[in-house]
Design a protein that fits this description.
- It is a single chain.
- It contains seven helices and 25 strands.
- It is elongated, with a radius of gyration of 42 Å.
- The chain has helices at residues 46-54, 58-68, 86-96, 113-135, 339-343, 390-401, 411-420; strands at residues 8-9, 17-18, 43-45, 73-74, 82-85, 142-146, 149-153, 159-164, 178-181, 190-195, 199-203, 209-213, 224-231, 239-246, 251-257, 263-270, 272-279, 288-295, 300-310, 325-335, 349-355, 359-367, 371-378, 383-388, 422-425.
- A hairpin with a 3-residue loop joins strand 22 (359-367) and strand 23.
- The longest helix is centred in the first third of the chain and has 23 residues, at 113-135.
- It is of the alpha+beta class and 427 residues long.
- Among the domains are: 8-96, Multidrug-efflux Transporter Regulator, Chain: A, Domain 2 (Orthogonal Bundle); 218-425, no CATH class.
């Protein structure tokens, strides 16, 4: 049959026609098949010849076949070699390429690998620098008022960001507290700041205002924020408890907000309870909130123990953060009024609560000038002891000297404090 090689053409619709053998180079057989007018072969065997005809590289020629319909054919079998007809390849090229001024086709543009690698390297460098800048952004450690300007300071005391308010808070303003809260997935602190008992502001790690509560300013009458506390997540999503007081009606609303400032629950009580603290979870694992102030119905200082649990969801498929917070009163503690407090017809009230490991320290203000009684309660909120300030004893001494009281502070007054303490638990 001769020593020439056979080529099987598999065009569309062909079943494998056998072409005559190609004579060896320099023989006196039949003339070479027509090419491009310069003795070039009509068939291109392998990707190297196909890429050379297109004046490109093998990788780009293979992309042309996959994505742009380059007419390449293959031998039968799983690993059949590729080949193409030069005439079809050039026709495909001329059809896709624009023509230059003299009518000849221009080269198909392509990005060299070196340029692609350089661009990819630049993108990686930019991403790394952005990560470094974000991760090295200093944390807010404290706040400082400089006139009406609120400045957030880093651990080194330098100003990280600043915001200007209409006026600075007053020195005696009880509602100008602030706290750091970790709402950010990357562990950066948010800042909660209660401004002049008017509004609670939440700033992001870089000082952007995230939300306010109430969203709109209310009139002089109505409920105004007086205190807040960030509750530990425990069995609940993160919540912020805000005590809003209506001084005219003598009532308190304790609203529970999620980390986006949306209201997720509310508890209403008669009296003024503007001292808040979070407590260790109860036996069921639910976080506790303690609210101190005075109870209007009993005319006595009181401490409310509130259990928090996740209620019904806002929607059938709502995430945990959108669930309502069910707040229920677990217990109420009532503190007695001293003899001097009753004689002057004053209200004693809880002004400070500190939750420790297995105990609560509750300070009850009896008169002005630092006259207080500090009660120590156990985890079950039963009385474990108390301490009387020297200022309260001096007030008794002065009242006795002026004839306001019949006797000075004595053991009878301490016994009255023990006997007047009461704890009520809800069923």
């Amino acid at each position: 049959m001769g020593s020439g090689r056979f080529t099987v053409a598999m065009a569309e619709g062909d079943s494998g026609a056998v072409l005559p053998p190609r004579p060896p180079s320099g023989s006196s057989g039949e003339a070479p098949p027509p090419g491009n007018g310069a003795g070039e072969p009509a068939e291109l065997h392998g990707w190297k010849e196909i890429a050379a005809a297109l004046n490109t590289n093998v990788r780009t020629a293979q992309k042309y076949e996959r994505h742009h319909g380059l007419p390449v054919r293959r031998m039968p079998g799983k690993r059949g070699r590729v080949y193409a007809l030069r005439e079809e390849i050039l026709a495909w090229r001329d059809k896709r390429q624009p023509r230059n001024g003299n009518g000849s086709p221009t080269r198909i543009p392509e990005w060299p690998r070196a340029r692609l690698a350089a661009v990819a390297g630049c993108l990686v460098v930019v991403a790394v620098m952005a990560f470094v800048v974000l991760s090295n952004h200093p944390q807010v450690a404290s706040l400082r008022w400089n006139g009406p300007v609120l400045e957030a300071l880093g651990p080194d005391g330098r100003t990280i960001w600043a915001r200007t308010f209409p006026a600075p808070p007053g020195k005696a303003d009880p509602g100008s507290d602030w706290a750091l809260a970790n709402f950010d997935p990357e562990g950066r602190n948010h800042i909660l700041m209660l401004y002049r008992s008017v509004r609670l502001y939440c700033f992001g790690p870089r000082g952007r205002l995230e939300w306010t509560h109430p969203p709109k300013l209310v009139s002089s009458s109505g409920f105004h924020p007086r205190a807040f506390v960030v509750l530990p997540p425990q069995a609940e999503p993160s919540r912020i408890a805000v005590a809003l007081i209506d001084e005219t009606e003598g009532a308190t609303q304790i609203r529970f907000l999620d980390t986006a400032g949306n209201e997720r629950g509310v508890l209403v009580r008669p009296g003024v309870f503007d001292t808040l603290a979070s407590a260790v979870p109860d036996s069921a694992g639910a976080p506790l909130l303690v609210a101190g102030g005075f109870d209007r119905a009993r005319h006595r200082a009181a401490l409310l123990v509130i259990a928090l649990r996740a209620g019904s969801e806002a929607g059938g498929s709502a995430p945990a953060t959108e669930r309502q917070t069910a707040a229920s009163l677990q217990a109420a503690v009532f503190f007695p009024r001293t003899r001097l407090n009753r004689r002057l017809d004053l209200f004693n009230r809880v002004t400070a609560v500190r939750a420790g490991s297995g105990f609560f320290s509750v300070r009850v203000q009896e008169t002005a000038g630092g006259a207080w009684v500090e009660y120590r309660l156990g985890r079950d909120f039963r009385l474990r002891g108390f301490a009387v300030s020297d200022a309260l004893k001096r007030a008794f001494r002065k009242a006795f000297a002026r004839g306001v009281l019949r006797r000075d502070w004595s053991d009878q007054d301490e016994a009255a404090l023990l006997g007047g303490f009461s704890l009520l638990r809800t069923p």
